Amino acid sequence: MRSSANKPPRLLVVDDEYFNFEMLKVALSANFELSYAESGKSCLSSAIANPPDAILLDVCMPGLDGYDTCRMLKNTPETRDIPIVMVSGLESAQEQQAGFEAGCDAYVVKPFSVVGLLEKINTVV
Q: pTM higher than 0.70 for the full model?
């Protein structure tokens, strides 16, 4: 999926809190090119227009939540093969199961370690 071997993988970070994107940018920009979407709806249009190598998707967002966004991404031909890592403060087994049932490739519970997040991302990209 990557356009060039010497370019870093592109991550689309979807979170209604811009501060979370800023934190991820600091933590991950050495390994990835990051872009931002503030909602599930903007994630869908961005992923179709400029497909990333993976999507970091927050679960708890107003409007279209992460589960619905994930289902829509996985049911859209242009985006169905993009790996999705769900990121959430919801840590119960039921919440994680709901993420996998929606189609995510990995589920990371907040607060997370940057090393742990990198490992999850690298397993799906």
A: yes
